[in-house]
Amino acid sequence: MADFVLGIDLGTSNSVVAVERDDGPVVLLDADNRGLQPSIVSFHPSGSILAGHEAKRRRLIDPENTIYSAKRLIGRPFSSPEVQQLVERMPYHMVAGDNDQTMVEVRDQRLTVPEVSALLLHHIKIIAERALRQTVSKAVVTVPANFNDAQRSATVAAGQIAGLEVLRIINEPTAAALAYGHGKKMDRKVLVYDFGGGTFDVTVLEIHGEVYEVLATAGDTYLGGDDFDVLVMDRMVEQFLHKTRYDLRHNEAAMERLRSVAEQVKCQLSTQGRSVVQVQEIAYGPDGTALDLDFAMERKELEDQTEELVDRTFAICDEAFKLANMPINEVDEVVLVGGSTRIPMVRESVRSYFARAPMATINPDEVVALGAAIQGASLLAAVAPPPSLPSAAAPEAGRGQGQGQGMPAIPPAPGEVSPVPSPKPRPLLLDVTPLSLGVAIVGGYAKVIIPRNAQVPAEATEVFTTGADNQNSVSLRICQGESQRFADNTVLGELILAGLRPAPRGEVKVEVTFEIDTNGILEVHAKDEATGRVQDATIRLLGELGEHELSGAIERVGPRVGA
To answer: Which of 3, 46, 190, 478 has minimal Cβ neighbours within 10 Å of its Cβ?
Structure first.
């Protein structure tokens, strides 16, 4: 049986799964011919777990037990400012677990964020298996380019809990560039402007044939379409309060209805100049009278409210060009990725900033998954060429890049000889680390070990010594970020060097090699400089699932996925 590697775009708002077949990458559709799957998981009173479209339908009627925007939580400690902001806004309950893990409470149980994401990934896996009519166990999963080590590691853990072997974690803009350039024998510099539901990334690449070299990447993992929805929702709340003296912020069910309507208004204003909505019986007055919300918004109003969010994306673009040491006029093509790039103001602002029209022929919702599928197939290229889908499953295999692409080739006419395709050239991705890796030193400062924008895999070796006689362990705090002050960076956790030999202070010198692998995940190796003896080196990330906890999650969640 042919082996497939799933390309999964695990998004904040929606997720997509694709595979590469012999005539190109295709998005896999569910039984209702839908390629986009809402990134939502709901816990039903019956004990069943719903994901995707079925879960989205329960978001309005059971908001406390329906989890969405988990991507904004994954890999973040509960004490982080981003999580605390969501604690104030989300209808579902979050608490701190061991090691400052972010936990969600649903129906008298607590789950880590990777466990919630695993339920969604398993749902996606089932869709793929039904479309392909075979089991699959391997995947390439995409993440925002600016995800740190903890967020990448948590994404891998989610895949493992879902029963997937994650062959590679690749950055979303890099995957999009791969789908854009694969097989086209181009030689150009491309900028990928990736504005999704919860994150923003910009990546500058140089494409030479099938070599994709990232020159620079920058981003914000807490900037996306969700923030547009919040601004619209706040406007609704203010108008309703002014009209009725009723503050909807104290009514979780009403706020969840408003979130849905706010998204609807945002989408309508992408295709029309004015949106008018009515939400009936959004609340009840002191005398029990039903209160309706009547709301209208002009596109110009939305643009005025969200201008600051869009401007932030171009400050990040400035940063990327500075890192790449490249003027803006050297960009040959601007590729738009992510649902938020459908907003007219975003497209016009991109056109103005780059003084050129962005490419509009690629489906911004699907291109990342298609690129991940291409990379997945390339990882199996040494074993076999990309397989063909079963003919009966081909109609379910949906769409490719843009309209009319990625579909099965037209068969030869009777009497014609079908040419044997030559082996496809496989892509080579040369990506970079988005954040500097550092360790804490005296005075509250951070020493950079691996600088930002270093090509991955990257490694650096530092020597650390003991500070006391007969000291048997050394603890180092590690971070990612660009500030000289350690506390101003993202604190990843602790590196513990244990089992050191007894010796006077300063005599034991330990060589520690920090390596950021092709997934952007940190690995550490250590040895005694004098004896060559390998030392125990353990990284404990804040909010991380330990090995024992991961095994427990697989046992606990594994039997329930798809239930």
So the answer is: 46
